[in-house]
């Protein structure tokens, strides 16, 4: 990602009526969580997030420049994670080969990882998806750069969250299907995880030297049409909300609300964050008591800085996709330095992001009634 020095305004793309209606429906379906439900939220454990042995995070804390063995190792980690923990998710990759300013004419492979889980009664052309996104590549310079906040930790946070809600989602969908509740069937959405490759610039950030995977995937999905009479025009229109996590894992992040059309989703995060703090369920609260989502009171006349940060959402937003960008401003002090490694992560903050995202997903997917027993949640 890159922060622009020019005025942070971006012309919002034309959004079709169907997209607006779908987004409005999705927003109105968000369910506030009770205090008792918050106690049941599965929370990240050291077994998952230890920087040297954690089964989710540690395999990502390696250099992972596109086209290198490290990149392939992380890609295999994603595939193994879903195969071992979430075997009923559909896994695909989208590949492209592109030259970079440093490749001397050689084409570099970029591989986007896609995992989806849809209601069992839906067809691909008729389902909307709540989409969780991070990039998994790391910068080519400085040599050996890890990118723990950028974006190994965000990838791990997403993996933990979807695993945490998976059984509750199965229970909800099984109940709806058993009851043959047609209205509930129509309202349900699926989940998509996107781990994008090639976000980082190879030499210096430009329109062509950045966002390699995101640019190719957005263009590809825009041209990949569903059959006639489908509710959705193309694969891009399956995305009801594009939630992009980036630069997360340092203590005390300040997360602005970047876009007015997704401020409802931002406000939901802010509400859940306050609830978790009040309930004493955020491990970082004592040393970092200031709220992360500090712009919940913005309104249509407020200052919106949506175009100020270039990141993987841009090719999708330019095609009308609704975006919630979870990236701190200012950026972490370790940004693009060798200090952006596992040792400099604030682990309480990383785990709290896992808890917060999981709780938000429970509300977004309406899973409070199907959460498991407290004794079975993560430690």
List the helices and strands and how they pair.
Blueprint: E1 2-3, H1 17-28, H2 35-40, H3 46-49, H4 69-85, E2 90-98, E3 108-117, E4 129-135, H5 148-179, H6 182-187, E5 190-196, H7 212-222, E6 239-245, H8 263-278, E7 309-310, H9 314-317, E8 323-326, H10 347-365
Parallel strand pairs: 4-5, 4-6, 6-8
Antiparallel strand pairs: 1-7, 2-3, 3-5
Description:
It contains 10 helices and 8 strands. A 6-stranded mixed sheet has the order 2-3-5-4-6-8, with helices on both faces. A two-stranded antiparallel ribbon has the order 1-7. The chain is 34% helix and 13% strand. It has helices at residues 17-28, 35-40, 46-49, 69-85, 148-179, 182-187, 212-222, 263-278, 314-317, 347-365; strands at 2-3, 90-98, 108-117, 129-135, 190-196, 239-245, 309-310, 323-326.
| Uncertain stretches | 5-22, 375-379
Strand content: 5-15%
Please state the oligomeric state of the protein chains shown.
single chain
Q: Overall pLDDT, averaged?
A: 92
- Side-by-side strand order of the widest sheet: 2-3-5-4-6-8
What Rg, in angstroms, do the CA atoms define? 20 Å
Order of helices and strands: EHHHHEEEHHEHEHEHEH
Give a quick account of the main beta sheet: strands, pairing sense, barrel closure.
Answer: 6 strands, mixed
**Category from helices, strands and their pairing:** alpha/beta
Compute the number of strand runs.
8
Rough shape? globular
Total DSSP helices? 10
Distance between the termini: 33 Å
| Helical fraction | 25-40%
Short key terms for the protein model shown above:
10 helices, disordered C terminus, alpha/beta, six-stranded mixed beta sheet, two-stranded antiparallel ribbon, 379 residues
């Amino acid at each position: 990602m890159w922060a622009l020095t020019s005025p942070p305004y971006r012309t919002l793309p034309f959004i079709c009526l169907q997209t607006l209606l779908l987004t409005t429906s999705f927003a109105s379906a968000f369910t506030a969580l009770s205090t008792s439900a918050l106690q049941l939220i599965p929370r990240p454990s050291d077994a998952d997030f230890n920087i040297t042995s954690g089964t989710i995070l540690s395999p990502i804390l390696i250099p992972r420049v596109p086209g290198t063995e490290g990149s392939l190792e992380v890609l295999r980690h994603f595939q193994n994670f879903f195969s071992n923990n979430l075997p009923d998710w559909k896994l695909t990759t989208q590949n492209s080969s592109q030259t970079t300013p440093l490749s001397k004419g050689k084409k570099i492979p970029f591989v986007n990882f896609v995992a989806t889980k849809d209601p069992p009664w839906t067809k691909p052309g008729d389902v909307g998806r709540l989409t969780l996104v991070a990039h998994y590549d790391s910068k080519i310079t400085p040599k050996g750069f890890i990118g723990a906040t950028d974006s190994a930790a965000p990838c791990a946070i997403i993996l933990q969250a979807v695993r945490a809600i998976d059984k509750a989602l199965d229970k909800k969908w099984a109940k709806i299907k058993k009851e043959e509740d047609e209205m509930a069937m129509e309202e349900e959405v699926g989940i998509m995880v996107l781990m994008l490759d090639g976000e980082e610039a190879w030499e210096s950030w430009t329109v062509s030297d950045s966002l390699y995977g995101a640019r190719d995937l957005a263009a590809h999905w825009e041209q990949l049409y569903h059959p006639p009479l489908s509710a959705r025009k193309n694969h891009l229109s399956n995305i009801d909300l594009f939630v992009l996590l980036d630069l997360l894992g340092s203590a005390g992040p300040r997360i602005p609300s970047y876009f007015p059309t997704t401020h409802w989703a931002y406000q939901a995060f802010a509400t859940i964050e306050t609830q978790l703090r009040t309930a004493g369920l955020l491990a970082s609260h004592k040393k970092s008591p200031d709220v992360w989502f500090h712009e919940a009171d913005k309104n249509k006349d407020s200052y919106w800085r949506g175009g100020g940060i270039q990141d993987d959402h841009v090719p999708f937003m330019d095609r009308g996709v609704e975006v919630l960008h979870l990236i701190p401003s200012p950026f972490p002090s370790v940004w693009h330095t060798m200090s952006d490694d596992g040792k400099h992560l604030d682990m309480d903050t990383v785990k709290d992001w896992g808890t917060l995202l999981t709780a938000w997903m429970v509300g977004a997917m309406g899973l409070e009634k199907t959460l498991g027993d407290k004794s079975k949640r993560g430690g």
